[in-house]
UniProtKB/TrEMBL annotation:
The keyword Hydrolase applies. One of its GO terms (cellular component) is cytosol. The lineage of its organism: Bacteria, Bacillati, Bacillota, Clostridia, Eubacteriales. This is 6-phospho-beta-glucosidase. InterPro entries: GH, GH_1_N_CS, Glyco_hydro_1, Glyco_hydro_1_AS.
Length: 475
């Protein structure tokens, strides 16, 4: 009971746009994240409220170098292997493979780069878990067709999937179609390359884009299973149950509505159809989805094999408009929970919330789960050798692994693996900062882009190594 099942996939998670760098190397095209600056303009751009379609000299763009995984991948994967990783979650940069998104032929240099990364993983017995698009749209498609507003995106995504599934069919078994697909509602430019015109029905635009992504995800699942029946295709949700602020029925109802807002995407990807509550919501908000013939059939017949999710914290909501002491929590506005401590960025720390979330998702779908992000963003203070005594990170992860084990061993939740976020320090997606660190490995780089990029092990590195060695028994 103290361990996890044999074959459990321990590892860590990253994203191309937050770690890769080399933003125009190897014939890579410009991506949405490459034009998102650090600083005060970051959120307006991510929200689609401020158009920034090119880079300028006045802003700093953290993705351009990030931590330069592009040139350091061998060293980084060797460190992951030393920790004992069984699995490495990473994403592909779409514009590295199709620089403009609509190119007639893929970019061989980009394909070769990922071949090399996968080969390096497999050399150490590490299974790649690949997110096809992680907050990533080629900028050319934003400018030419409005990104996921356009139905044409489904075809371009389909083409990307055909190329990568065929190319890597003997190297990659586990795939995720879209990272945190529900983030499209909260950060539309980062989630779907969306920008808005004044006076538009923004909700209608977002849900139409969501429909295109949901159809694209189902088509990817169909293509994958045709190319290699052993492929396992998952969806990915930014998860965390929403608690009611009080036992007032209005608060309980509000928390249910908030959870449904996120489950909506997975309801379609896992059950294969639009839920009735969503159809009613569309009616109320004057949203009329444009569907093509065959869409409903594609969704119904190509549901995902497993459900992956990120979990950082739970959320809290109230139906009372006066209860407004809100705190920032990874773009999801949430009330302060008086029973929980919070991180330096105001994210509330709730290990039991992970067990609650796992049970909620498993009860709803009865499909295997995979925790593909979980971790603590914190300011680390290294000594002269780059060593960090990050006991706060160890404590956070230890309590979450305990909750995860309880969900598996005591509640019977089926769980495939655990890949904590930012296993090596990388650029924060929400703030663009380097100082908001998650990793077991420290990278010498600051918010302004200065530093040697030297890698060094934190205290948590050896702690996590023991956790993996003991299959979760030694915490």
């Amino acid at each position: 009971m103290n361990k996890l099942p044999e074959g459990f996939l321990w590892g860590g998670a990253t994203a191309a746009n937050q770690c890769e760098g080399g933003y125009l190397e190897g014939n890579k095209g410009l991506s949405t994240v490459d034009v998102i600056p650090a600083g005060k303009d970051r959120f307006p751009v991510m929200l689609g409220k401020m158009n920034m379609f090119e880079c300028d000299d006045e802003h700093f763009y953290p993705s351009h170098e990030a931590i330069d995984f592009y040139h350091h991948y061998k060293e980084d994967i060797a460190l992951f292997a030393e920790m004992g990783f069984k699995c490495f979650r990473m994403s592909l940069a779409w514009a590295r493979i199709f620089p403009n998104g609509d190119d007639a032929e893929p970019n061989e240099e980009g394909l070769k780069f990922y071949d090399d990364v996968f080969d390096e993983c497999l050399k150490y017995g590490i299974e790649p878990l690949v997110t096809i698009t992680h907050f990533d749209v080629p900028m050319n498609l934003v400018k030419a067709i409005g990104a996921w507003r356009s139905r044409k995106m489904v075809d371009y995504y389909e083409r990307l999937c055909e190329v990568i599934f065929d190319r890597y069919k003997n190297k990659v078994k586990y795939w995720l179609t879209f990272n945190e697909i529900n983030m499209l509602l909260h950060l539309p430019f980062i989630g779907a390359g969306l920008t808005f015109e004044p006076g538009e029905n923004e909700e209608a635009v977002k849900y139409q884009a969501a429909h295109h992504q949901l159809v694209a995800s189902a088509k990817a699942t169909k293509i994958a299973h045709a190319i290699n029946p052993d492929f396992k295709i998952g969806c990915m949700l930014a998860a965390g149950n929403t608690y009611a602020n009080t036992c007032a029925p209005e608060d309980v109802w509000r928390s249910m509505e908030k959870d449904r807002e996120n489950y909506f995407f997975i309801d379609v990807q896992s059950r294969g159809e639009y839920p009735n509550y969503a159809k009613k919501m569309f009616e109320r908000h004057n949203i009329s989805l444009k569907m093509e013939e065959g869409d409903e059939e594609i969704l119904k017949n190509n549901t995902v094999d497993f459900i992956s999710f990120s979990y950082y914290s739970s959320r809290l909501t109230s139906a009372d408009p006066k209860v407004s002491a809100e705190t920032e929590g990874n773009v999801f506005a949430t009330l302060k929970n008086p029973y929980l401590k919070a991180s330096e960025w105001g994210w509330q720390i709730d290990p039991l919330g992970l067990r609650i979330t796992m049970n909620s998702i498993y009860d709803r779908y009865q499909k295997p789960l995979f925790i593909v992000e979980n971790g603590l963003g914190a300011v680390d203070n290294p000594d002269e050798n780059g060593y960090v005594e990050d006991d706060y990170r160890i404590e956070y992860l230890r309590e979450h692994v305990k909750a995860m084990k309880a969900a598996v061993n005591e509640d019977g939740v089926e769980l495939m693996g655990y890949t904590p976020w930012g296993c090596i320090d990388l650029v924060s997606a929400s703030t663009g900062e380097m100082k908001k660190r998650y990793g077991f490995i420290y990278v010498d780089k600051d918010n302004e882009g200065n530093g040697t990029l030297k890698r060094s092990k934190k205290k948590s590195f050896n702690w996590y190594k023991k956790v993996i060695e003991s299959n979760g028994a030694e915490l």
